[in-house]
Amino acid sequence: MNRRTAREKAFQVLFSLDNERFDPKEAIELSLGEQQPSEFLTTLIYGVVENKEAIDQKISDHLENWSIKRLAIVEKTLIRIATYEIFYEEETPHGVAINEAIELAHIYGDDKSGKFINGVLSKMI
């Protein structure tokens, strides 16, 4: 599984965790079926879950005229993943984390999602 696919699967799992309150392991199994998760995928999912409070605080610190509670789940989930990568994954260049979040926003978000995500994440670096 390449990193782009892992990010997309991580988004799907984390999105479902926000909506349904699954256990991360159960959500991964439901998402992947028989396929084994890559190390990068599990690192992203568990990294976001375990650091969610700190990640959400970093996001909140960079929102203008918004609260994290007002963010749509798609945007919030993508920003959480990218924030995790920016602050906790030293191997991922910041620009890559931002670009990948924007690309996923084009697939799962609305017309303005990518621009919004870019604005929030750009303020973090």
From TrEMBL:
Q: Which Pfam families match?
A: NusB
Keywords of the record: RNA-binding, Transcription, Transcription antitermination, Transcription regulation
InterPro entries to which the protein is assigned, alphabetical: NusB-like_sf, NusB_fam, NusB_RsmB_TIM44
Q: Which Gene3D superfamilies match?
A: NusB-like (1.10.940.10)
Q: What domain of life does the UniProt record list for this protein's source?
A: Bacteria
Q: Where is the NusB/RsmB/TIM44 domain?
A: 5-124
Supply one GO BP term: transcription antitermination
User: Which is one GO molecular function term here?
Assistant: RNA binding
Keyword Transcription attached: yes
Give the GO cellular component terms, alphabetically: cytosol
Described by its record, this protein's role is as follows: Involved in transcription antitermination. Required for transcription of ribosomal RNA (rRNA) genes. Binds specifically to the boxA antiterminator sequence of the ribosomal RNA (rrn) operons.
Belongs to which family? Answer: Belongs to the NusB family.
- What is this protein identified as? Transcription antitermination protein NusB
Which organism is this protein's natural source?
A: Natronobacillus azotifigens
Encoding gene, per UniProt annotation: nusB
